[in-house]
Amino acid sequence: MLSLQRLLGHDKQFFDLLDASAQESHASVLALKQLLQHPDKAGLEAFSALRRKDKRITNEIHELLCRTFVTALEREDIQDLSTALYKIPKIIEKFAERLMCAHERLKGVDFSRHIALLEEATTTVIAMLKELRAMRLKEMVQLSGRLREIEAEGDRFLNELNAELYSGKVDPLNAIILKDLYELLEKALDRSRSAGNVMARIALKHS
User: Fold this and answer.
1) Which of 17, 68, 79, 184 would you label with 86, given CA atoms 20 to 30 Å apart?
2) Structure pTM?
3) What percent of the chain is modeled with pLDDT above 90?
């Protein structure tokens, strides 16, 4: 197996930027965890700052692609991975904004299970990037499998929550708000899985 890093010098820059983007995704989950523990509209600025920082990283990746004539990783794969990573903090920022708009109505709602899944998903994405950099396929397959399990667990949880919302026991407006928030968290999990899918695809191409 030919090591990706040996092919072209620019690859390290791409991996460094992608890793930085993955770290921002994880940081946005930790910021959300903090916001849920201590709700404060002033805390929303942290999400905007994280999203802006990740946007700069994404732009750097695109600019580097424009300046690089040949890449070991296919351009489409780099762009797909960069886009999936950027969408995570963007979705979480949207969730935080909507949460604070309806905070008074949602007192007592427990999002801890969602956050635990997102925290593990983004941590797993970071670990997959590390293994991709070294092209350790076996470890990547294991991590990709764990991402699938996390996504499946999130789907089951969403179905449980929807069943509760449709039961008629929840205030109609609260049901609408909660369904929107639950779906945003599920979408963030899906983007983590999308990032994992791209990395698995890259690894298979170079195995």
Assistant:
1) 68
2) 0.89
3) 67
